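lol ok so funny story. i was supposed to be doing the assay writeup but got distracted and ended up predicting the structure for this chain instead. priorities right. anyway since i did it might as well share w the group, maybe its usefull for someone
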Amino acid sequence: MYHRPLAGSDQRDTLFVLAELTLVICGAWEAPRVRTSQT
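and the output, tada:
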């Protein structure tokens, strides 16, 4: 059944991309809070 290694790599890539997107979104949400808290 394992004849397509690309499927697994695609799933891993999507997971990494989703993780990076969540980190970026969290950073974007935290950045304004820090700026507003400083001022």
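The chain has a mean pLDDT of 77. The helical segments are 5-38.
back to the writeup now i swear
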